[in-house]
Amino acid sequence: MPGFATTTGGVLLILAILLPVAGLTASLALGGRRAEWIALTLAPVGVLIALAIATNVLASGAPVVYIVGGFAPPLGIALRADGFSAIMLLTTAAIISAACFFARSGFATPKGEPEARAPFTFWTLIQGLFAALNIVFLSGDLFNLFVALELLTFAAVPIVCLDGRPETLVAALRYLLFALFGSVFYLLGVGLIYGAYGTLDILLLAARVKPEPAVYAAAGLMTAGLLAKTALFPLYLWLPPAHANAPAAGSAVLSALVVKAPFFLLVRLWFDVLPKLPSETAMALLAALGSAAILVGSVLALRQQRLKLLIAYSTVAQIGYLFLMFPLALGGGAWSMDAWIGGVMQTLSHAFAKAGMFMAAGLAAQSLGHDRIKDLGGLGRAMPMTVFALGIGGLSLMGLPPSGGFAAKWLLLTASAEAGQWVWVAVILAGGLLAGGYVYRILAPALSGEPAALNSAPARSREAIALALTLVALLLGFAPQSFFSLIEIGRLPVVGP
Amino acid sequence: MNALGAVDLGLALLVLAIAGWTIAAREAFAAIVGYVAYGLLLSIVWARLFAVDVAMTEAAIGGGVTGVLLISAAARLRQAQTAEDERPTLPLRLMAAALSALAAIALGAVILSLPEPGPSLAPLAAKNLAATGVGNPITAVLIAFRSFDTLLEKVVLLLAIIGVWSLAPDRYWGGAPIAPRAARPVGALTFLAQLVAPIGVVVGVHMVWVGADEPGGAFQGGAILAAMWMIVMMARLSEAPPVGAPWLRAALVAGPAVFLIAGASGAVTSGAFFALPQAFAKPLILIIEAFMTLSIAVTLPMLVAGPPRRAPL
Questions:
Q1: Helices B281-305 and B246-269 sit at what angle, rounded to 10 degrees?
Q2: d(C-alpha A53, C-alpha A47), whole Å
Q3: By the number of CB atoms within 10 A of the CB, which of A62, A429, A431, B43 ranks highest?
Q4: A70 with B257: Cβ contact below 8 A
Q5: What's the pTM value of the predicted model, to 2 decimals?
């Protein structure tokens, strides 16, 4: 039976998880500069492993599987990488590596000290995040995924308050409360599912699940918990202060990757665990919340006075687009593959664009000594590469061609039109206009006036990392055919209406 | 209704009453005391359901360690309290209560709808018990069938420690935390610590040792050892070590590190990460449990001790 035996290349899956775990453990034991060196070495190795996994999935045309401990489900745990997993692993490894190299100058252990608080915390926790994200994308077991969510929470929250100002502590605490609330709801749902079917394996559950009260309750609880963690409207209140207060490298990883993990699990839940559940109403509700997120998040982004908060509110809006995919891709219509690719493309292009933009915003704030939007005048002349990164990232957020954001929004738009669900068409168009507005609010002052006076010149290498990430978001608009073949691999056949 | 049935009914009512009291309590300390009592009662409930391992874990972690953590948190909050009492308005509280009651009723109805007897993996676990060499199926699940989960849960504890330490002021980094303790040595407390700690250490180690075949194991034993160290620190017989101490770091990572090495060796000897070679399964499990116990016994008191609060020497 496919999915219950280790396949070729399966060992790569466990390595993708255990290497950052080992790195974290060694970094805690050895401490100081060695933590930094371990993180900087293992992150690029993670990119190689992710590439190898993607190659294997593409070559075999089917999910790559690893049976942990040789105990097959339902007794043990299986790791499975389908196309979506593979592309998320690759995105994660690339952005974590970029964040690590970007963070070097900010989190160097001072000379003459064996170890310092912020560097030690950052270099250990970033490896914790890496491990947790990889488990989320690979695990085929609902309880194992709960442990991954816990790892993710405990690695992400301290990064928010890394610089220790009181307002960052408040933001971190609020984030922690939302995240724990989400975990409890998710775990309650997992308990109900185990009580009903006696297994936690996603493939086994997909075959056994029937529409009955326990499943509806579990689906509701798990969805609510994951929505709180992914900050979908109206549960987004924690996100802007948390993402705006973290150090730039941290904000990049939090906004690009960490909020995508619970979204990925929602996709797993509805597409892979519960495809047999009649879900039209629930999916329409998710997309309605997504639409509200797009409109409210964009309007709030338009009203912000600080650059990092504007970018954080734009994350609230961009997450909304991800949820338009649910009613369109799950329906089994001719348009469902378009919607699926659009949703995946939005996940990726937002990840790269937002990571680059948060880094660029961090560089601007560091060099100017503030991030007030009205005082960004002359930034374009003083730091052209940084402003270029903000512009390219903004292009993808608006959904203008040629960019990954354009491809994503175009696919979602055409899928909505084909499905006759015109309300989403209106939301996508309005969201694009509003995004244009808030990107204009950044670029208009930045591109005008005499060169701004900088407190310190930004490091060229750090500007280059920010720009490179946003360029990836742009290049996604030119993705080759093999990219599309990859992200279609392993989707369970969706039962038609 | 026989005598045991009456005890069960009384127990259930008591659990509900204490839960209600914990929610209604206006003082943080009172609520925490209620919560600890609730945890201990719950562990009796687990024992009545013949889930002895769960009962011991609930008593040690749910009642014991969490209680100490909450009490020390409340003590710190009291020092900083600005005594502002923002009580939500009555309609808001009524709405929250109605929503909670509705959710509870719905959950109760759903749980009653579950199949009876529930589908279970217990027979499958029992059938595969021989492959692990241990006699306690719970230990087999934790250290063999789902050892991957157990390792990752240990890593969660490491992240928690890093998170707690990260709240220290920069100048104290590398220094020692100050565990919650009596303001000055108290004769009775010192005597208690000297009397209880040696016995507790023996009980904790015993619990890990028998855990292979009887109820017990690294979590429960480690939690008891942790409690003994906490008592010794509370009685001022010992100080929390500096967070940079190499032996402390080694003890914190010992469990996960040994687990990782044993897991990787499985890839060489048995063809899969975390697989155990049949001939050595039991000794390997005992070694893993021993180091896990050490890490748990050190991690929990350090979590209670909090971030470093002294400059390094």
A1: 150
A2: 10
A3: A431
A4: no
A5: 0.95
Q: A417 touching B, CB under 8 A?
A: no
How far apart CA B152 and CA A216 sit, in angstroms, is 29
pLDDT in tens, A398-408: 999 889 999 99
Could you tell me if B105 lies within 8 Å of chain A, comparing CB atoms? Answer: no
Q: State whether residue A306 is helix, strand or coil.
A: strand
Return the SS3 of A65. Answer: strand
Rounded distance between C-alpha atoms, residue B99 and residue B107, angstroms: 12
Residues of B in contact with A117 (CB under 8 A): 165-166, 168, 170, 173
Amino acid at B144: A
Sole residue written with tokens 């401990």: A69
Give the C-alpha separation, A488 to B6, whole Å.
59
Q: For residues A224 and A226, what is the distance between their CA atoms, to the nearest angstrom? A: 6
Q: How far is A490 from A76, CA to CA, in rounded Å?
A: 21
Question: In chain A, helix, strand, coil percent, each to 5?
Answer: 75, 5, 25
C-beta of residue A255 within 8 angstroms of C-beta of residue A358: yes
DSSP codes, chain B:
--HHHHHHHHHHHHHHHHHHHHHH--SHHHHHHHHHHHHHHHHHHHHHTT-HHHHHHIIIIIIIIHHHHHHHHHHHHHHH------PPPHHHHHHHHHHHHHHHHHHHHHHHHS-SSPP-SHHHHHHTGGGGT-S-HHHHIIIIITHHHHHHHHHHHHHHHHHHHTTS-GGGTTS----S--SS--HHHHHHHHHHHHHHHHHHHHHHHHTTTSS--HHHHHHHHHHHHHHHHHTTSS-PPPTT-HHHHHHHHHHHHHHHHHHHHHHHHTSSTT---GGGHHHHHHHHHHHHHHHHHHHHHHHHH-S--S---
pLDDT bin (cut points 50, 70, 90) of residue A495 is very low
Q: How long a stretch of residues is chain B?
A: 313
Number of C-beta neighbours around residue B179 at 10 A = 22
**Whether ipTM exceeds 0.90:** yes
Domain locations in chain A?
278-497
Residue A306 backbone phi and psi in degrees, to 5: -115, 140
Q: What is the tens place of the pLDDT at every residue in A23-47?
A: 999 999 998 899 999 999 999 999 9
Quick check: B146 and A77 CB within 8 A?
A: yes
User: Mean pLDDT across chain A, nearest whole number?
Assistant: 94
Nearest to A197 among B119, B155, B273 (CB): B119
